Amino acid sequence: MESLLYIDPNIFFPCFFGFLFVCFENQFKKISLKWCVVGLSATIILALLFPLIGLKRYLIWILTFSQMLIWALTYVFMAKKINKTVAFFLALLIGFIWALALASLVGVIYNI
What we know:
It is built from 5 helices and no strands. By secondary structure, the chain is an all-alpha fold.
């Protein structure tokens, strides 16, 4: 039986990142698009390599980090065009779809 105070790291870290992102929004806007693309490319490569070299247990952390990068990237792009609240919820939806697609791709390739 799990304790009522159990905090799942797969839920805690994205929520904590979201809180930090909202608090320090101006600093996140200064991040170059190049670094976000490099980070996303690195997470995709790591997600495809980790099961190959036997590190499947760390795959969820790579997927979580990739999802957080997508959240930040889509929020920064969409907040300029539409309402920030709508942009935030759309970024959450896009991040969820991204993580699901990347996990499905890795699962299909490696039959996990």
